Backbone:
Protein backbone atom coordinates (compact mmCIF):
# COMPACT_ATOMS: atom_id res chain seq x y z
CA UNK A 1 0.00 0.00 0.00
CA UNK A 2 1.55 3.32 -1.10
CA UNK A 3 1.04 6.85 0.18
CA UNK A 4 -1.55 7.37 -2.56
CA UNK A 5 -3.91 4.78 -1.09
CA UNK A 6 -5.56 4.77 2.28
CA UNK A 7 -8.69 6.78 1.49
CA UNK A 8 -8.33 9.09 -1.50
CA UNK A 9 -11.04 11.57 -2.53
CA UNK A 10 -10.88 12.62 -6.20
CA UNK A 11 -12.90 15.78 -6.75
CA UNK A 12 -13.63 17.49 -10.06
CA UNK A 13 -16.14 18.94 -12.45
CA UNK A 14 -18.18 17.27 -15.16
CA UNK A 15 -15.93 15.71 -17.82
CA UNK A 16 -12.83 16.78 -15.95
CA UNK A 17 -11.14 13.39 -16.32
CA UNK A 18 -11.67 12.50 -12.65
CA UNK A 19 -12.84 8.90 -13.30
CA UNK A 20 -9.90 8.17 -15.64
CA UNK A 21 -7.50 9.65 -13.07
CA UNK A 22 -9.04 7.54 -10.30
CA UNK A 23 -8.74 4.40 -12.45
CA UNK A 24 -5.04 5.09 -13.06
CA UNK A 25 -4.51 5.51 -9.30
CA UNK A 26 -6.16 2.15 -8.75
CA UNK A 27 -4.01 0.48 -11.43
CA UNK A 28 -0.81 1.87 -9.87
CA UNK A 29 -1.51 0.10 -6.58
CA UNK A 30 -1.36 -3.33 -8.22
CA UNK A 31 -4.21 -4.42 -5.95
CA UNK A 32 -7.30 -6.26 -7.22
CA UNK A 33 -9.85 -3.57 -8.05
CA UNK A 34 -13.50 -3.64 -7.10
CA UNK A 35 -15.54 -1.02 -8.91
CA UNK A 36 -18.56 0.19 -6.96
CA UNK A 37 -20.96 1.87 -9.36
CA UNK A 38 -23.59 4.23 -8.01
CA UNK A 39 -25.12 5.17 -11.38
CA UNK A 40 -28.61 4.03 -12.27
CA UNK A 41 -29.32 3.55 -15.98
CA UNK A 42 -32.68 5.33 -15.86
CA UNK A 43 -32.42 6.86 -19.35
CA UNK A 44 -30.46 6.48 -22.62
CA UNK A 45 -27.96 9.21 -21.72
CA UNK A 46 -26.95 7.49 -18.47
CA UNK A 47 -26.94 4.03 -20.09
CA UNK A 48 -24.47 5.28 -22.70
CA UNK A 49 -22.26 6.99 -20.10
CA UNK A 50 -22.13 3.80 -17.99
CA UNK A 51 -21.20 1.71 -21.07
CA UNK A 52 -18.38 4.15 -21.99
CA UNK A 53 -16.87 3.96 -18.52
CA UNK A 54 -17.19 0.16 -18.39
CA UNK A 55 -15.47 -0.26 -21.78
CA UNK A 56 -12.56 1.94 -20.67
CA UNK A 57 -11.94 -0.08 -17.51
CA UNK A 58 -11.83 -3.37 -19.41
CA UNK A 59 -12.65 -6.93 -18.32
CA UNK A 60 -10.14 -7.18 -15.42
CA UNK A 61 -12.39 -5.15 -13.15
CA UNK A 62 -15.08 -6.62 -10.95
CA UNK A 63 -18.12 -4.33 -10.78
CA UNK A 64 -20.90 -4.19 -8.24
CA UNK A 65 -23.75 -1.73 -8.07
CA UNK A 66 -24.58 0.29 -4.98
CA UNK A 67 -26.98 3.05 -5.99
CA UNK A 68 -28.68 3.10 -2.56
CA UNK A 69 -26.84 1.27 0.28
CA UNK A 70 -23.36 2.59 -0.37
CA UNK A 71 -22.39 2.67 3.32
CA UNK A 72 -23.30 -1.00 3.73
CA UNK A 73 -21.45 -1.99 0.55
CA UNK A 74 -18.28 -0.17 1.66
CA UNK A 75 -18.37 -1.89 5.05
CA UNK A 76 -18.93 -5.33 3.50
CA UNK A 77 -16.39 -5.09 0.68
CA UNK A 78 -13.36 -3.20 2.05
CA UNK A 79 -10.19 -5.20 2.78
CA UNK A 80 -6.39 -4.96 2.77
CA UNK A 81 -5.90 -7.07 -0.36
CA UNK A 82 -8.15 -5.19 -2.74
CA UNK A 83 -8.88 -1.58 -3.60
CA UNK A 84 -12.35 -0.11 -3.91
CA UNK A 85 -13.22 2.56 -6.47
CA UNK A 86 -16.53 4.34 -5.82
CA UNK A 87 -17.75 6.32 -8.84
CA UNK A 88 -19.33 8.47 -7.71
CA UNK A 89 -20.52 9.87 -4.39
CA UNK A 90 -22.53 12.61 -6.10
CA UNK A 91 -24.67 10.21 -8.12
CA UNK A 92 -25.35 8.27 -4.92
CA UNK A 93 -26.44 11.56 -3.32
CA UNK A 94 -28.74 12.24 -6.27
CA UNK A 95 -30.27 8.76 -5.97
CA UNK A 96 -30.98 9.24 -2.26
CA UNK A 97 -32.55 12.67 -2.80
CA UNK A 98 -34.80 11.27 -5.55
CA UNK A 99 -35.80 8.51 -3.11
CA UNK A 100 -36.68 11.24 -0.58
CA UNK A 101 -34.36 9.75 2.03
CA UNK A 102 -33.40 11.59 5.25
CA UNK A 103 -30.28 13.22 3.79
CA UNK A 104 -28.62 14.22 7.06
CA UNK A 105 -28.84 10.65 8.31
CA UNK A 106 -27.71 9.23 4.96
CA UNK A 107 -24.68 11.49 4.79
CA UNK A 108 -23.73 10.79 8.41
CA UNK A 109 -23.93 7.03 7.81
CA UNK A 110 -21.80 7.22 4.67
CA UNK A 111 -19.18 9.41 6.33
CA UNK A 112 -19.02 6.98 9.27
CA UNK A 113 -18.57 4.05 6.88
CA UNK A 114 -15.72 5.87 5.07
CA UNK A 115 -14.05 6.74 8.38
CA UNK A 116 -14.21 3.06 9.41
CA UNK A 117 -12.87 1.54 6.15
CA UNK A 118 -10.37 -1.24 6.81
CA UNK A 119 -8.72 -1.18 3.40
CA UNK A 120 -7.83 1.23 0.58
CA UNK A 121 -10.50 3.10 -1.36
CA UNK A 122 -10.67 5.81 -3.97
CA UNK A 123 -13.85 7.90 -3.90
CA UNK A 124 -14.85 10.07 -6.86
CA UNK A 125 -17.10 13.12 -6.32
CA UNK A 126 -18.31 16.12 -8.28
CA UNK A 127 -17.70 19.71 -7.28
CA UNK A 128 -21.00 21.43 -8.12
CA UNK A 129 -20.90 24.69 -6.15
CA UNK A 130 -18.87 27.00 -8.39
CA UNK A 131 -21.63 28.26 -10.69
CA UNK A 132 -24.49 30.73 -10.26
CA UNK A 133 -27.02 29.99 -7.48
CA UNK A 134 -29.62 27.68 -9.08
CA UNK A 135 -33.17 28.99 -9.58
CA UNK A 136 -34.92 26.05 -8.00
CA UNK A 137 -34.85 25.14 -4.32
CA UNK A 138 -34.28 21.41 -4.95
CA UNK A 139 -31.03 22.17 -6.84
CA UNK A 140 -29.92 24.49 -4.03
CA UNK A 141 -30.55 21.75 -1.45
CA UNK A 142 -28.65 19.29 -3.63
CA UNK A 143 -25.73 21.71 -3.83
CA UNK A 144 -25.76 22.12 -0.06
CA UNK A 145 -25.80 18.36 0.58
CA UNK A 146 -23.04 17.77 -1.98
CA UNK A 147 -20.84 20.45 -0.44
CA UNK A 148 -21.41 19.12 3.08
CA UNK A 149 -20.66 15.54 1.96
CA UNK A 150 -17.48 16.56 0.11
CA UNK A 151 -16.21 18.51 3.13
CA UNK A 152 -16.91 15.64 5.53
CA UNK A 153 -15.24 13.03 3.30
CA UNK A 154 -12.27 15.34 2.60
CA UNK A 155 -11.75 15.82 6.34
CA UNK A 156 -11.47 12.03 6.80
CA UNK A 157 -9.50 11.23 3.62
CA UNK A 158 -5.73 10.70 3.62
CA UNK A 159 -5.41 12.29 0.18
CA UNK A 160 -7.65 14.75 -1.69
CA UNK A 161 -7.01 15.59 -5.34
CA UNK A 162 -8.81 18.19 -7.42
CA UNK A 163 -8.90 17.45 -11.18
CA UNK A 164 -9.22 20.11 -13.90
CA UNK A 165 -8.76 19.36 -17.61
CA UNK A 166 -7.47 15.91 -16.65
CA UNK A 167 -4.67 17.35 -14.50
CA UNK A 168 -4.35 16.69 -10.75
CA UNK A 169 -3.89 19.32 -8.07
CA UNK A 170 -3.21 18.03 -4.57
CA UNK A 171 -5.45 19.59 -1.92
CA UNK A 172 -4.37 17.23 0.86
CA UNK A 173 -1.82 14.46 1.35
CA UNK B 1 -0.38 40.52 13.39
CA UNK B 2 0.83 37.46 11.46
CA UNK B 3 1.49 36.95 7.77
CA UNK B 4 -2.03 35.54 7.44
CA UNK B 5 -3.65 38.86 8.34
CA UNK B 6 -3.36 42.14 6.53
CA UNK B 7 -6.17 41.73 3.98
CA UNK B 8 -7.07 38.11 3.22
CA UNK B 9 -9.58 37.12 0.51
CA UNK B 10 -11.16 33.69 1.02
CA UNK B 11 -12.74 32.50 -2.21
CA UNK B 12 -14.81 29.36 -2.74
CA UNK B 13 -17.98 27.75 -3.99
CA UNK B 14 -21.28 27.22 -2.23
CA UNK B 15 -20.88 25.03 0.87
CA UNK B 16 -17.16 24.77 0.34
CA UNK B 17 -16.34 25.50 3.97
CA UNK B 18 -15.07 29.01 3.22
CA UNK B 19 -16.87 30.69 6.16
CA UNK B 20 -15.62 28.11 8.66
CA UNK B 21 -12.08 28.46 7.28
CA UNK B 22 -12.28 32.25 7.55
CA UNK B 23 -13.52 31.98 11.15
CA UNK B 24 -10.56 29.74 12.05
CA UNK B 25 -8.17 32.28 10.49
CA UNK B 26 -9.75 34.99 12.62
CA UNK B 27 -9.47 32.89 15.79
CA UNK B 28 -5.76 32.19 15.13
CA UNK B 29 -4.93 35.90 15.20
CA UNK B 30 -6.09 36.23 18.80
CA UNK B 31 -7.53 39.65 17.94
CA UNK B 32 -11.03 40.74 18.92
CA UNK B 33 -13.29 39.74 16.03
CA UNK B 34 -15.94 41.93 14.46
CA UNK B 35 -18.26 40.02 12.18
CA UNK B 36 -19.71 42.13 9.37
CA UNK B 37 -22.76 40.33 7.98
CA UNK B 38 -24.03 41.26 4.52
CA UNK B 39 -26.91 38.78 4.44
CA UNK B 40 -30.48 39.97 4.56
CA UNK B 41 -33.03 37.59 6.08
CA UNK B 42 -35.60 38.07 3.32
CA UNK B 43 -36.93 34.49 3.38
CA UNK B 44 -36.92 31.38 5.60
CA UNK B 45 -33.99 29.79 3.76
CA UNK B 46 -31.73 32.80 4.42
CA UNK B 47 -32.97 33.19 8.01
CA UNK B 48 -32.00 29.59 8.73
CA UNK B 49 -28.59 29.95 7.08
CA UNK B 50 -27.83 33.10 9.10
CA UNK B 51 -28.85 31.36 12.34
CA UNK B 52 -26.59 28.35 11.55
CA UNK B 53 -23.57 30.59 10.96
CA UNK B 54 -24.27 32.67 14.09
CA UNK B 55 -24.55 29.56 16.28
CA UNK B 56 -21.21 28.25 14.97
CA UNK B 57 -19.38 31.46 15.76
CA UNK B 58 -20.65 31.53 19.36
CA UNK B 59 -21.27 34.45 21.74
CA UNK B 60 -17.69 35.87 21.75
CA UNK B 61 -18.24 37.52 18.40
CA UNK B 62 -19.63 41.00 17.90
CA UNK B 63 -21.83 41.17 14.82
CA UNK B 64 -22.93 44.17 12.82
CA UNK B 65 -24.96 44.18 9.64
CA UNK B 66 -23.86 45.95 6.48
CA UNK B 67 -26.06 44.73 3.64
CA UNK B 68 -25.77 48.06 1.76
CA UNK B 69 -23.03 50.46 2.90
CA UNK B 70 -20.19 47.96 3.20
CA UNK B 71 -17.50 50.44 2.11
CA UNK B 72 -18.54 52.92 4.82
CA UNK B 73 -18.69 50.19 7.47
CA UNK B 74 -15.19 48.95 6.60
CA UNK B 75 -13.79 52.48 6.80
CA UNK B 76 -15.49 53.17 10.14
CA UNK B 77 -14.70 49.86 11.85
CA UNK B 78 -11.17 48.85 10.79
CA UNK B 79 -8.35 49.17 13.30
CA UNK B 80 -5.09 47.58 14.42
CA UNK B 81 -6.50 45.96 17.58
CA UNK B 82 -9.37 44.04 16.04
CA UNK B 83 -9.96 41.89 13.02
CA UNK B 84 -12.90 42.26 10.65
CA UNK B 85 -14.57 39.29 8.98
CA UNK B 86 -16.85 40.20 6.07
CA UNK B 87 -19.16 37.35 5.06
CA UNK B 88 -19.66 37.78 2.23
CA UNK B 89 -18.85 40.16 -0.61
CA UNK B 90 -21.06 38.25 -3.04
CA UNK B 91 -24.22 38.68 -0.97
CA UNK B 92 -23.46 42.40 -0.70
CA UNK B 93 -23.16 42.46 -4.52
CA UNK B 94 -26.52 40.71 -4.80
CA UNK B 95 -28.13 43.22 -2.44
CA UNK B 96 -26.80 46.17 -4.47
CA UNK B 97 -27.97 44.69 -7.77
CA UNK B 98 -31.46 44.09 -6.33
CA UNK B 99 -31.45 47.74 -5.20
CA UNK B 100 -30.58 48.73 -8.80
CA UNK B 101 -27.47 50.59 -7.66
CA UNK B 102 -24.81 51.83 -10.10
CA UNK B 103 -22.66 48.72 -9.88
CA UNK B 104 -19.47 50.13 -11.39
CA UNK B 105 -19.49 52.95 -8.83
CA UNK B 106 -20.39 50.58 -5.99
CA UNK B 107 -17.59 48.17 -6.84
CA UNK B 108 -15.03 50.98 -7.23
CA UNK B 109 -16.00 52.43 -3.84
CA UNK B 110 -15.73 49.04 -2.10
CA UNK B 111 -12.38 48.27 -3.70
CA UNK B 112 -11.08 51.70 -2.64
CA UNK B 113 -12.27 51.08 0.95
CA UNK B 114 -10.51 47.68 1.02
CA UNK B 115 -7.31 49.20 -0.38
CA UNK B 116 -7.40 51.86 2.38
CA UNK B 117 -8.09 49.52 5.34
CA UNK B 118 -5.99 50.45 8.37
CA UNK B 119 -6.28 47.11 10.13
CA UNK B 120 -6.61 43.39 9.40
CA UNK B 121 -9.63 41.97 7.58
CA UNK B 122 -10.74 38.67 6.16
CA UNK B 123 -13.15 38.93 3.23
CA UNK B 124 -15.20 35.94 2.08
CA UNK B 125 -16.46 35.75 -1.53
CA UNK B 126 -18.09 33.23 -3.82
CA UNK B 127 -16.59 32.02 -7.07
CA UNK B 128 -19.63 31.78 -9.40
CA UNK B 129 -18.12 31.71 -12.91
CA UNK B 130 -17.22 28.05 -13.35
CA UNK B 131 -20.56 26.70 -14.57
CA UNK B 132 -22.48 26.92 -17.83
CA UNK B 133 -23.36 30.45 -19.11
CA UNK B 134 -26.68 31.31 -17.42
CA UNK B 135 -29.81 31.64 -19.58
CA UNK B 136 -30.88 35.00 -18.25
CA UNK B 137 -29.10 38.32 -18.78
CA UNK B 138 -29.39 39.41 -15.12
CA UNK B 139 -27.47 36.32 -13.97
CA UNK B 140 -24.82 36.94 -16.63
CA UNK B 141 -24.41 40.55 -15.43
CA UNK B 142 -24.19 39.31 -11.84
CA UNK B 143 -21.48 36.83 -12.85
CA UNK B 144 -19.55 39.62 -14.60
CA UNK B 145 -19.76 41.96 -11.61
CA UNK B 146 -18.76 39.17 -9.20
CA UNK B 147 -15.76 38.24 -11.33
CA UNK B 148 -14.65 41.85 -11.65
CA UNK B 149 -15.03 42.42 -7.89
CA UNK B 150 -13.12 39.25 -6.99
CA UNK B 151 -10.26 40.18 -9.34
CA UNK B 152 -10.02 43.72 -7.97
CA UNK B 153 -10.05 42.60 -4.34
CA UNK B 154 -7.57 39.79 -5.05
CA UNK B 155 -5.18 42.30 -6.66
CA UNK B 156 -5.20 44.38 -3.46
CA UNK B 157 -5.22 41.53 -0.92
CA UNK B 158 -2.07 40.33 0.84
CA UNK B 159 -3.31 36.74 0.85
CA UNK B 160 -5.84 34.93 -1.36
CA UNK B 161 -7.02 31.42 -0.52
CA UNK B 162 -9.27 29.21 -2.62
CA UNK B 163 -11.32 26.67 -0.65
CA UNK B 164 -12.61 23.37 -2.04
CA UNK B 165 -14.19 20.65 0.11
CA UNK B 166 -13.05 22.60 3.18
CA UNK B 167 -9.38 22.50 2.13
CA UNK B 168 -7.30 25.63 1.43
CA UNK B 169 -5.24 26.27 -1.67
CA UNK B 170 -3.07 29.38 -1.59
CA UNK B 171 -3.44 31.55 -4.70
CA UNK B 172 -1.44 34.46 -3.31
CA UNK B 173 0.61 35.24 -0.22
CA UNK C 1 11.26 31.21 -26.71
CA UNK C 2 10.96 30.86 -22.92
CA UNK C 3 9.62 28.05 -20.79
CA UNK C 4 6.26 29.82 -20.73
CA UNK C 5 5.73 29.49 -24.47
CA UNK C 6 5.49 26.36 -26.56
CA UNK C 7 1.77 25.64 -26.23
CA UNK C 8 0.14 27.16 -23.15
CA UNK C 9 -3.49 26.48 -22.16
CA UNK C 10 -5.03 29.16 -19.93
CA UNK C 11 -8.16 27.83 -18.27
CA UNK C 12 -10.59 29.76 -16.09
CA UNK C 13 -14.14 30.77 -15.33
CA UNK C 14 -16.18 33.68 -16.66
CA UNK C 15 -14.57 37.03 -15.79
CA UNK C 16 -11.68 35.30 -14.08
CA UNK C 17 -9.04 37.48 -15.75
CA UNK C 18 -7.88 34.69 -18.06
CA UNK C 19 -7.72 36.87 -21.21
CA UNK C 20 -5.73 39.61 -19.47
CA UNK C 21 -3.35 37.00 -18.04
CA UNK C 22 -2.89 35.42 -21.49
CA UNK C 23 -2.18 38.85 -23.00
CA UNK C 24 0.50 39.52 -20.37
CA UNK C 25 2.11 36.14 -21.16
CA UNK C 26 2.17 37.09 -24.84
CA UNK C 27 3.72 40.49 -24.09
CA UNK C 28 6.45 38.88 -21.96
CA UNK C 29 7.70 36.81 -24.90
CA UNK C 30 8.55 39.93 -26.92
CA UNK C 31 7.33 38.13 -30.04
CA UNK C 32 4.96 39.72 -32.55
CA UNK C 33 1.45 38.81 -31.41
CA UNK C 34 -1.31 37.51 -33.66
CA UNK C 35 -4.69 37.57 -31.95
CA UNK C 36 -7.06 34.89 -33.24
CA UNK C 37 -10.59 35.84 -32.24
CA UNK C 38 -13.29 33.17 -32.21
CA UNK C 39 -16.12 35.43 -31.03
CA UNK C 40 -18.98 36.31 -33.36
CA UNK C 41 -20.68 39.66 -32.74
CA UNK C 42 -24.20 38.25 -33.05
CA UNK C 43 -25.77 40.57 -30.45
CA UNK C 44 -25.06 43.81 -28.57
CA UNK C 45 -23.68 42.04 -25.49
CA UNK C 46 -21.03 40.21 -27.56
CA UNK C 47 -20.23 43.31 -29.64
CA UNK C 48 -19.51 45.26 -26.46
CA UNK C 49 -17.39 42.46 -24.98
CA UNK C 50 -15.32 42.21 -28.19
CA UNK C 51 -14.76 46.00 -28.24
CA UNK C 52 -13.62 46.00 -24.58
CA UNK C 53 -11.05 43.28 -25.23
CA UNK C 54 -9.82 44.97 -28.44
CA UNK C 55 -9.35 48.33 -26.65
CA UNK C 56 -7.34 46.66 -23.87
CA UNK C 57 -4.93 44.97 -26.30
CA UNK C 58 -4.22 48.26 -28.13
CA UNK C 59 -3.20 48.95 -31.73
CA UNK C 60 0.06 46.89 -31.72
CA UNK C 61 -1.88 43.65 -32.08
CA UNK C 62 -2.86 42.09 -35.39
CA UNK C 63 -6.26 40.44 -35.16
CA UNK C 64 -7.83 37.83 -37.40
CA UNK C 65 -11.16 36.11 -36.93
CA UNK C 66 -11.57 32.36 -36.93
CA UNK C 67 -15.03 31.58 -35.59
CA UNK C 68 -15.31 28.37 -37.65
CA UNK C 69 -12.07 27.04 -39.21
CA UNK C 70 -9.81 27.39 -36.18
CA UNK C 71 -7.73 24.30 -37.01
CA UNK C 72 -6.95 25.62 -40.50
CA UNK C 73 -6.10 29.08 -39.17
CA UNK C 74 -3.71 27.65 -36.56
CA UNK C 75 -1.93 25.55 -39.20
CA UNK C 76 -1.64 28.49 -41.59
CA UNK C 77 -0.54 31.14 -39.10
CA UNK C 78 1.82 29.45 -36.61
CA UNK C 79 5.54 30.18 -36.86
CA UNK C 80 8.70 30.57 -34.76
CA UNK C 81 8.86 34.39 -35.01
CA UNK C 82 5.38 35.22 -33.79
CA UNK C 83 3.06 34.11 -31.01
CA UNK C 84 -0.58 33.19 -31.47
CA UNK C 85 -3.23 33.99 -28.89
CA UNK C 86 -6.52 32.13 -29.38
CA UNK C 87 -9.37 33.64 -27.34
CA UNK C 88 -11.15 31.41 -26.84
CA UNK C 89 -11.59 27.69 -27.58
CA UNK C 90 -14.94 27.57 -25.81
CA UNK C 91 -16.55 30.22 -28.03
CA UNK C 92 -15.28 28.31 -31.07
CA UNK C 93 -16.93 25.18 -29.63
CA UNK C 94 -20.19 27.10 -29.17
CA UNK C 95 -20.04 28.34 -32.77
CA UNK C 96 -19.55 24.80 -34.11
CA UNK C 97 -22.40 23.41 -32.02
CA UNK C 98 -24.75 26.17 -33.24
CA UNK C 99 -23.69 25.28 -36.81
CA UNK C 100 -24.62 21.64 -36.03
CA UNK C 101 -21.16 20.42 -36.99
CA UNK C 102 -19.94 16.87 -36.24
CA UNK C 103 -18.40 17.73 -32.89
CA UNK C 104 -16.24 14.64 -32.45
CA UNK C 105 -14.61 15.27 -35.84
CA UNK C 106 -14.26 19.01 -35.13
CA UNK C 107 -12.59 18.43 -31.76
CA UNK C 108 -10.25 15.76 -33.17
CA UNK C 109 -9.18 18.10 -36.01
CA UNK C 110 -8.52 20.99 -33.62
CA UNK C 111 -6.55 18.83 -31.21
CA UNK C 112 -4.44 17.50 -34.11
CA UNK C 113 -3.76 21.06 -35.30
CA UNK C 114 -2.66 22.09 -31.78
CA UNK C 115 -0.42 19.03 -31.47
CA UNK C 116 1.23 19.91 -34.83
CA UNK C 117 1.83 23.64 -34.14
CA UNK C 118 5.27 24.76 -35.30
CA UNK C 119 5.48 27.90 -33.18
CA UNK C 120 4.33 29.26 -29.81
CA UNK C 121 0.66 29.68 -28.97
CA UNK C 122 -1.45 30.59 -25.97
CA UNK C 123 -4.94 29.11 -25.95
CA UNK C 124 -7.66 30.46 -23.66
CA UNK C 125 -10.56 28.21 -22.60
CA UNK C 126 -13.44 28.29 -20.14
CA UNK C 127 -13.97 25.76 -17.40
CA UNK C 128 -17.75 25.21 -17.39
CA UNK C 129 -18.22 21.92 -15.51
CA UNK C 130 -18.16 23.01 -11.87
CA UNK C 131 -21.80 24.02 -11.43
CA UNK C 132 -25.04 22.08 -11.08
CA UNK C 133 -25.97 19.69 -13.95
CA UNK C 134 -27.86 21.87 -16.46
CA UNK C 135 -31.56 21.21 -17.03
CA UNK C 136 -31.39 21.05 -20.81
CA UNK C 137 -29.70 18.32 -22.85
CA UNK C 138 -27.98 20.77 -25.24
CA UNK C 139 -26.17 22.45 -22.34
CA UNK C 140 -25.13 19.03 -21.00
CA UNK C 141 -23.73 18.04 -24.39
CA UNK C 142 -21.90 21.38 -24.56
CA UNK C 143 -20.41 20.76 -21.14
CA UNK C 144 -19.29 17.30 -22.21
CA UNK C 145 -17.66 18.58 -25.41
CA UNK C 146 -15.95 21.44 -23.56
CA UNK C 147 -14.57 19.07 -20.92
CA UNK C 148 -13.32 16.61 -23.54
CA UNK C 149 -11.69 19.42 -25.55
CA UNK C 150 -10.01 20.93 -22.47
CA UNK C 151 -8.64 17.54 -21.42
CA UNK C 152 -7.28 16.78 -24.89
CA UNK C 153 -5.62 20.20 -25.28
CA UNK C 154 -4.22 20.05 -21.74
CA UNK C 155 -2.65 16.65 -22.47
CA UNK C 156 -0.79 18.14 -25.46
CA UNK C 157 0.09 21.54 -23.94
CA UNK C 158 3.51 22.28 -22.45
CA UNK C 159 1.99 24.53 -19.80
CA UNK C 160 -1.52 24.65 -18.29
CA UNK C 161 -2.55 27.47 -15.97
CA UNK C 162 -5.82 27.78 -14.07
CA UNK C 163 -6.92 31.36 -13.32
CA UNK C 164 -9.16 32.36 -10.40
CA UNK C 165 -9.77 35.99 -9.41
CA UNK C 166 -7.00 37.00 -11.81
CA UNK C 167 -4.41 34.81 -10.07
CA UNK C 168 -2.59 31.94 -11.79
CA UNK C 169 -2.27 28.40 -10.49
CA UNK C 170 0.03 26.10 -12.46
CA UNK C 171 -1.58 22.76 -13.32
CA UNK C 172 1.22 21.65 -15.66
CA UNK C 173 4.62 22.90 -16.76
Residues:
Amino acid sequence: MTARTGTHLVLGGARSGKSAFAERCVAETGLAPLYIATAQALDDEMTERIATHRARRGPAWTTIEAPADLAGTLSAEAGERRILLVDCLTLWLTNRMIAEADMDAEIDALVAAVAALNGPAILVANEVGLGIVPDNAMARRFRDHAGRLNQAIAARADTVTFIAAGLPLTLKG
